[in-house]
Automatic annotation (TrEMBL), chain A:
Residues 46-158, 205-331, 491-608 form the Plastocyanin-like domain. Gene3D superfamilies: Cupredoxins - blue copper proteins (2.60.40.420). Pfam families: Cu-oxidase, Cu-oxidase_2, Cu-oxidase_3. GO terms for molecular function: copper ion binding; oxidoreductase activity. Keywords: Copper, Metal-binding, Oxidoreductase, Plasmid. This is Copper resistance system multicopper oxidase. It comes from the Bacteria.
Automatic annotation (TrEMBL), chain B:
InterPro entries: BlueCu_1, Cu-binding_ET, Cupredoxin. This is Cupredoxin domain-containing protein. Residues 1-28 form the signal peptide. The keyword Signal applies. Keywords: Copper, Metal-binding, Plasmid, Signal. Pfam families: Copper-bind. It comes from Azospirillum oryzae. Residues 54-183 form the Blue (type 1) copper domain. The keyword Protein biosynthesis does not apply. One of its GO terms (molecular function) is copper ion binding.
Length: 614, 186
């Protein structure tokens, strides 16, 4: 690869002789000076650095001198050239997350002929920008992404922007630990259920008695036994804790601040560049209008909060009218802390910190084991289900189960519900209904509803329950509608089932039961329309990321399925996507939780020409 | 847009909805000339009375031009061409009026009366009274809905100088920047 790299460098040197002395310095042209045919060229060095978070010194790896790495502002259609120099004592790489490009430029070592950049070497990336929107870049080597190797990419469209904003900010969320990633992974593997190294909220004896009081001793004991037999814990929402949560590299006390004038329209390009953290994001007092998901424009949808999978991006517009500070608040779903930043008319201001949300308690439904509500379940898809792992499950006792049977239910799809039939509905006919789990539902329009029925936000049951207060709206995947119609309306001719599998107790995460390169790669023919069904058989959500191509989420939006590069698959649920296999190559296909990928939750997605001679 | 609130039943369930849908400004209907602060916004006029024609392109989700200059007392005939794939509105009002109207239009979309791409004509005249809801109609004199590919007109007399915007209040469009300033010149 270094030969190729030098070849390109020489060619560039002729065109960019004037910049020759700037190696190692970030060189970014202001976008408005874009020359019609000129390349955007820059040099990025990867090196160890120190950083200060809320006054405490820590260490990490910087790309281009900072954490996060500098925002790369490009324009659709441009050809960009990036020289990456490795000043570490270990191999590195940079992957352009969400960009459509030739396989070798994708930057994932071991795929498409790309080799890691060895210490002291420079690799030259060169690719044409075939899209617009908000993306990001990060290391695809070892745990370097966790150590700070991530930054934003903003690509202006060649055509007119469908939205207009007075201000435009990048908001990069991340999780930081001073611990080396290799050490984190070692501890994860060492930690058994009985130790739960990073999980500080194992259910306690106190919880046991509280549950017993609520559900009756029998049910509690039974529930406990079930969890015990499955070698999992109902509070296992995230497996690494002890993180600091950052906004643009700043801790909650550092308080990264973006300025606005009241009445201005502010675009926030929010990127979840965490290694392991799924967030719930909100700006109390300021509704957000989502205009893009994973860089791709969507029909604008107004919301109050959204759940944010690792690797995803959302562009939102906010219209602050008042002369006051607003808090951008992102809580990890295990509620072990928060990331915080401020939107303010002046520097030095800070808004109120909202009350922290409760941690949800996973239910059996999050295990896909809620047999009480199996009516609509598609048994056809259960082919690969491994019943061997469910030894102690007593099905005869399920009727007595009270806890959150609706947990996994997607209320986001209730939009089209005919409320006219609800007129005479007595509250008495809804005995078992737990409103606390109706996260995606828009209560704003249910004016006459007795709010007392909603339990409020002091308790959350089931993975989907973000404890969203009544009267506010959380984004649901079902709300996302592509701004442009689906280009390829063909019905998929090939369906691929990808089971998300793992053994929490040994920290082995797999796809279809096999670790990376022990399983068989996925092969599809170039040009075919493919359906992928993700069947999550674990109790954690997995943000599934395919390199090289967008997938279109089958969320009911017919000819406007939203394009995504990461799809967050909730625990115990099945999510399906379609794609047109129009990018030849062997692409990484993995869970974007760093330590899940590192422990094996990855495969090859090979797009090959029909003729065998690829 | 104006909601003709004709039927109120099942008061307990309705109260909230009714409150939500009361227009932010009781703009006088076409039949009775405006009074009070509504007059400041201006009034509808006959196309033949306009001395000036302004062409406006409606796209996804923007206007071209992004601001329009008028004089107090001037009558302008707006020719509105929708070049986009989505349904758009051209509504002249204050920012407060637009904010109120956005809630109404969100409800019309929610109930299927309007879709992102058009007006659901099959629902015209639908009796929402069984739901305890007021009948919804998009019939304000200061507003026009323009479907994809359509061209429509609105003639408006700007009676006196005030802070006005022309805006599309389809859900998310105003927020996305589909709003322009009416600039008064002397």
């Amino acid at each position: 690869m270094n030969t190729a790299s030098r070849g390109l460098s020489r060619r560039d040197a002729l065109k960019l002789a004037g910049l020759a002395g700037l190696a190692g310095v970030v060189t970014l042209y202001p976008e408005r000076r874009a020359f019609a045919t000129a390349h955007q060229t820059l040099d990025l060095a990867v090196e160890r650095t120190r950083l200060t978070i809320d006054g405490a010194t820590s260490h990490g790896i910087a790309i281009g001198g900072s954490i996060p790495a500098p925002t790369l502002r490009w324009r659709e259609g441009q050809e960009v050239v990036v020289h990456v120099t490795n000043r570490l004592d270990e191999p590195t790489s940079i992957h352009w997350h969400g960009l459509l490009l030739q396989g070798v430029m994708d930057g994932a070592p071991g795929f498409n002929g790309y080799q890691p950049i060895m210490p002291g070497d420079t690799y030259t990336y060169r690719f044409q920008l075939r899209q617009a929107g908000t993306y990001w870049y990060h290391s695809h080597s070892a745990g370097q992404e966790q150590e700070g190797m991530y930054g934003a990419i903003v690509i202006q469209p060649a055509e007119r922007e469908p939205v207009r904003a007075d201000r435009d900010y990048v908001v990069v969320l991340s999780d930081h630990t001073p611990e080396r990633p290799a050490s984190v992974l070692r501890k994860l593997k060492l930690g058994s259920v009985s130790e739960g190294y990073y999980n500080r909220s194992k259910r306690t004896l106190f919880d046991f008695f509280r549950d017993a009081e609520r559900d009756g001793l029998d049910a509690t004991v039974r529930n406990r036994l079930d969890w015990g037999d499955m070698l999992m814990e109902p509070t296992d929402l995230a497996d690494v804790t002890g993180y600091s949560f950052l906004v643009n590299g700043k801790g909650p006390q550092d308080n990264w601040t973006a300025l606005f004038k009241p009445g201005e329209r502010v675009r926030l390009r929010i990127i979840n560049a965490s290694a392991m953290t799924i967030f719930d994001v909100r700006i109390p007092g300021l509704p957000m209008t989502v205009v893009a998901a994973d860089g791709q424009n969507v029909v604008p949808v107004k919301i109050d909060e959204f759940r944010f999978g690792v690797g995803e991006t959302y562009d939102v517009l906010v219209l602050p009218q008042e002369d006051k500070a607003f808090t951008i608040f992102a809580e990890p779903i295990d509620r072990t802390g928060f990331a915080r930043a401020t939107l303010a008319p002046r520097e030095g201001m800070s808004g109120d910190l909202p009350a922290r949300r409760p941690r949800t308690i996973l239910t059996m439904a999050d295990m896909g084991m809620d047999h009480g509500s199996m009516a609509g379940m598609d048994h056809g898809s259960m082919a690969g289900m491994n019943h061997g792992a469910m030894p102690g499950m007593d099905h005869s006792s399920m009727p007595g189960m009270k806890q959150g049977p609706m947990a996994g239910m997607d209320h986001g799809s209730m939009k089209g519900m005919d409320h006219s039939a609800m007129m005479g509905m007595g509250a008495g006919s809804m005995p078992g209904m737990d409103h606390s789990t109706m996260a995606g539902m828009d209560h704003g329009t249910m004016a006459g509803m007795e709010q007392g029925a909603a339990k409020g936000s002091d308790r959350a049951l089931g993975w989907a329950d973000a404890a969203t207060p009544p009267g506010t709206k959380a984004l649901s995947y079902a709300d996302l509608r592509a701004f442009s119609k689906t280009r390829d309306p063909r019905e998929p001719t090939q369906e691929i089932v990808v089971r998300l599998t793992g053994m929490m107790s040994r920290y082995i995460w797999t796809l279809n039961g096999a670790k990376f390169d022990q399983g068989t790669p996925i092969r599809v023919a170039y040009g075919d329309r493919i359906r992928i069904r993700f069947v999550n058989e674990t109790m954690m959500a997995h943000p599934m990321h395919l390199h090289g191509m967008f997938v279109e989420l089958e969320n009911g939006q017919k000819d406007r399925l939203p394009k995504k590069h990461v799809v967050l698959v909730p625990p115990g649920q099945t999510t399906s996507v379609q794609l047109t296999a129009n990018e030849p190559g062997e692409w990484p296909f993995h869970c974007h939780l760093l330590y899940h990928m590192a422990s094996g939750m990855m495969t090859r997605f090979i797009v090959e020409r029909r003729t065998a001679s690829l | 847009m104006r909601l003709n609130i004709r039927t109120l039943t099942a008061a307990s369930l309705v109260t909230g909805i009714a409150l939500l849908t009361v227009p932010g400004l009781a703009l006088a209907g076409a039949g009775e000339p405006g009074h009070g602060h509504a007059a400041a916004v201006g009034e509808p006029a006959k196309a033949s009375s306009a001395k000036r024609v302004v062409q406006v392109e409606l796209g996804d989700n923007y206007y071209k031009p992004e601001s329009i200059s008028v004089k107090a007392g001037e009558t302008v005939r707006f020719v509105l061409k929708n070049k986009g794939d989505f349904l758009h509105e051209f509504n002249i009002g204050t920012a407060t009026m637009h904010a109120a109207h956005q809630k109404e239009m969100a409800m019309m979309v929610e109930h299927g009366m309007l879709t992102p791409t058009g007006i659901n004509t099959s629902m015209n005249g639908m009796d929402h009274s069984k739901m305890g809801m007021a009948e919804m109609k998009h019939d304000d004199p200061n507003s026009v809905l323009v479907g994809p590919g359509e061209t429509k007109e609105l003639t408006w007399k700007f009676t006196k100088e005030t802070a006005l915007e022309f805006a599309c209040n389809m859900p998310g469009h105003y927020e996305s920047g589909m709003v322009g300033k009416v600039a008064f010149t002397r």
